[in-house]
Amino acid sequence: MGRENLTWVSEFVLLGLSGDRQTQAGLFVLFGAAYLLTLLGNGLILVLIRLDPRLQLPMYFFLGNLSVVDICYTSSGVPQMLAHFLLEKKTISSARCGTQHFFSLALGGTEFLLLAAMAYDRYVAVCDPLRYAAVMGLQLCAGLAAVSWLVGLANAAVETAVTVRLPTCGRHVLNHVACETLALVRLACVDVTLNQVVIVASSVVVLLAPCCLVALSYARIVAAVLRIRSSGGRRKAFGTCASHLTVVSMSYGMALVTYMQPRSTASAEQDKVVVLFYAVVTPMLNPLIYSLRNKEIKAALTRVLTRSSQSKR
Fold it and tell me: Given a cut of 50, is residue 264 above it in pLDDT?
């Protein structure tokens, strides 16, 4: 196809989840409630980490970064989705589509990398507890967080650059709830080999490599815990990792099931489920998991509430 026949569109139409108005109203209430819970839960964790001196630890430094990622990630797509549930014309400009695409990729990649950094933190805490404070100093924690953010941003910049340049030859209907990579690539009317290579490389950098680091960290953690003679000691050691391991299993599990299957078996509906899982479900559940299964978070909440009530007297 000659370049003179290639065209780019100025806006896209998002088909969303359903065309039925009643269903859309129900989805608006459901996802709106989930969005509010996400903001409240992650916001509460950030406030507790800021106000309680006992949470000034490496684990909670990373948890604070994770909460910021979750708030930004869900805010990059859910408000647009909620608006479309109420609108007859579900359009998004190509510029806004590219911006949404970039931030969802950047924040999603950063989250996977932060989870790997948190796994290393748990490894040091369990396997080398006497040197934990010396090893997990402020400089290392800040460096790991910075690398997570920078790699996530750089990866998103490359993938967005090769995706938004694709001409669609007039096709502008996206069978999706958001501007997602595979949905945009499906509309292209040119060869997408470069995009496929970039998608695979991106998956290795922000998914497979961090997943291998997490697996290695937990393999060493399990080996160290099994050497502990007392059952109480083993339970305490595993307890320090329970919340993180739950979040890791949820996040990496869905990603690996999705991206390790043949592309020929994937469907647009399946892609929608994956995006909704990471944009709505995961950010909402993460603070619940860390608060319900973490005694220090619950104790910090009690202390903050107690101080607040005493200051009002």
Answer: no
Confidence band, pLDDT 50/70/90 cuts, at residue 4: very low
Tell me the pTM. Answer: 0.89
Place of tokens 């990866």: 155
pLDDT for 5 equals 57
DSSP string, the chain: --GGG----SEEEE--S-S-HHHHHHHHHHHHHHHHHHHHHHHHHHHHHHH-GGG-SHHHHHHHHHHHHHHHHHHHHHHHHHHHHH-SS-EEEHHHHHHHHHHHHHHHHHHHHHHHHHHHHHHHHHH-GGGHHHHT-HHHHHHHHHHHHHHHHHHHHHHHHHHHT---TT--EESSSS--HHHHHHH--S--HHHHHHHHHHHIIIIIHHHHHHHHHHHHHHHHHHT--SHHHHHHHHHTTHHHHHHHHHHHHHHHHHHSS-GGG--HHHHHHHHHIIIIIHHHHHHHHHHHT-HHHHHHHHHHHHHHHHHT-
